[in-house]
Amino acid sequence: MAGEILDNQGRGEASWRWPAIHPEARKFAAIAAVLCALFAFLAWETVAWPMGLLVFCICAFFRDPQRVTPQGDRYIVAPADGLVTLIQKVPPPRELAIDDGSAAARLGEAPVTRISIFMSVFDVHINRAPIGGTVRRVIYIPGRFLNADLDKASEENERQHILIERGDGTAIGFTQIAGLVARRIVPFVKPGDMLAAGQRVGLIRFGSRVDVYLPEGTDSRVLLGQKIVAGETILAEIGQAGPIEGIMQ
């Protein structure tokens, strides 16, 4: 049940359930289903079966499972499912750093830790808010469609920046980046919206990446090569810094 409280002392009820399918899937699945039915009617089974498989793949891609988001003022949770492919100190994007004259929060120009999360076509592509707060900026930038795994994709690919400000003034910026196959970034939020941590904010169709910019003085609590889950994995704790090592095995 949405909104149910679960904790580390056993409170609540947890069970496996089929994930919901996001409405964005409807038109793609409907087209594939119609083609499947047409080819089946024409007895073109060698084409009808792959089209039927395509319907299943589309529904799987747009799956929208429920997530249990850790609650805590210091937690920054993952905005995307996927693989941590880059952790670097970089200046924030200009669109999130400059003063736009609105007196709203911005990230500043000092280098901060950026965590890049690569989403393959097998990952859930619904993106979620890393913190609770007010959406201050949503900035779409057209661009190229390079491999989202490349570092330069952060500056050259089609992308959308989102900035969220907490009540205490702490701001977190993150960027949805289109990849080789992705051709559309779909936002669910706009400036002024109030969000809870883990709330759905958008999706990127068919393989992509999300970059998260941590506040100054905060280091990643996840490791390079780690597989993470949107709305559940704690990326960082605000104000916590220092190296963490892992062993691939």
TrEMBL record:
Membrane disposition: Peripheral membrane protein
Mod. after translation: Is synthesized initially as an inactive proenzyme. Formation of the active enzyme involves a self-maturation process in which the active site pyruvoyl group is generated from an internal serine residue via an autocatalytic post-translational modification. Two non-identical subunits are generated from the proenzyme in this reaction, and the pyruvate is formed at the N-terminus of the alpha chain, which is derived from the carboxyl end of the proenzyme.
Active site: S208
Enzyme nomenclature, EC number: 4.1.1.65
Residues flagged as site, Cleavage (non-hydrolytic): G207, S208
A GO MF term: phosphatidylserine decarboxylase activity
Enzyme class: lyase
Pathway(s) served: Phospholipid metabolism; phosphatidylethanolamine biosynthesis; phosphatidylethanolamine from CDP-diacylglycerol: step 2/2
UniProt-listed InterPro entries: PS_Dcarbxylase, PSD-A
Highest rank taxon of the organism: Bacteria
Pfam families: PS_Dcarbxylase (PF02666)
Subcellular location: Cell membrane
Cofactor(s) required for function per UniProt: pyruvate
SUBUNIT field: Heterodimer of a large membrane-associated beta subunit and a small pyruvoyl-containing alpha subunit.
HAMAP family: PS_decarb_PSD_A
Biological role stated in the UniProt entry: Catalyzes the formation of phosphatidylethanolamine (PtdEtn) from phosphatidylserine (PtdSer).
NCBIfam families linked to this entry: PRK05305.1-2, PRK05305.1-3, PRK05305.2-5
The name this protein goes by in its record: Phosphatidylserine decarboxylase proenzyme
Gene (name only): psd
